[in-house]
Amino acid sequence: MKQGLVFLGLALGGLALNVNAQQCDLTITGTVPEGISLDKLVVSTYNKELPVTSRDYSLCASKQDLEVVGRHSPNNTIYLMDKSGAIPRGIYTAEVFVQSKAITLGPASSLTKQACNLRCGYYANQRVLHSDKLQQLASQYQQLAASDRKAIGSFVSQHKAELAQLYYGDLKPKSMAPVDTSDLWVDPYSGAGLYFDSPENLLNSTFRDTVGTEAREARKQDKAVAEVMKQHMASLQGLMKGFNSWQARGDAIATVTDELKASQDPAATQVAQIFIDGYQEAEATLKAYLANDNKTPIASLTQADKAFELLLADWTVAAYTHSKDKQAFSALFSEQFKLKLPIKDRELDKALSRLIDLPSHLSKMSLEQGYQNIQVEFKDALPKSSERYDFKDALHSVSFVYEKGAWRLDSVSQLPIAHYETN
Fold first, then answer.
1. Residue 125's Cα: distance from chain center in Å?
2. Could you tell me the pTM of the whole model?
3. Which of 21, 98, 215, 281 could be joined to 210 by an S-S link, Cβ 3.0–4.6 Å?
4. pLDDT, tens digit, for every residue of 172-201?
5. CB-CB contact of 84 with 32 (8 Å)
């Protein structure tokens, strides 16, 4: 009986392995052009060469084979490669993205790579690939002998301008006002949490500043207050020192001020009130920081009727250019988001960092170019809304809410950059 169970377990295990072996992160299909031998013909990925053994082929690649980083643009290309000669020769090529599930290697994918010229993310790539003009050029390209590299090179050069125009097509992205970014730099990998005021630091610094200012004024105006402070110097100085938590500071303040008020000395009561005022002012300051009442410092984000792609461009540029202004920066986020402060989740911090860096990442020369490229990349990604946008794909998710007179980031997440390292 035990042997039968063991055999059954092995059989089921073998079945599971077969099922897993058939799973594909990316399906690569194509047709080998005439004149190209199947001898030593492969599809070359970042980490693997997949043999091509038939004219019409379909291959499976894992994300480990592809090793595409979790960024908005790809870090590699796949090729149909002829390795029968002394020097390997590329026949067709295509860019691979995190969102890619199936790619046809052929004239269209090769010309799309030329048209994109590293500018495209997944969505711009797909728009160019499926445009009528690209398909027309691909039909002409396909008529050329795949082995005639000179004719192919001449064709691409001849249509270089047409291919370059396909990136924008008939889109006319808006321009942004000039911005001096010479002293700005956003780490695209982590550190976005540092652009916020830490609630703990805000509470403690406001408390110390308020108490310090009121105490100085009170001592000047009333010698009795100065005498009380001198008598209780040790306990009062203790309240100004560091505590493990805001609650611990509050408990200590309550203990000392209760003792002062119990003496029924007007000067002692006044001293107690100084520390109570400092505590209450700190909490009020934090509450105001976390709230968005009357906070619309970025004019471009106050327009409720704004398409998602323009909102994404406006918000990311605003976050990038206001990353050193903690008050303006905090107003870019919903009250629900700010309840998560301080950001202790490293993946959230990294996702926010990469989102803020998006216009810089999608540009070659300037923030302005990145601003326009965002609009091109995410054109019509979501239906127009004046209340909320929720975007999500295999790479990342981002949500914006129109709250108290302005668009604000409500949530963000992103795939780990080296997602291919996990099975």
1. 19
2. 0.87
3. 281
4. 999 988 887 778 888 898 999 999 999 999
5. no
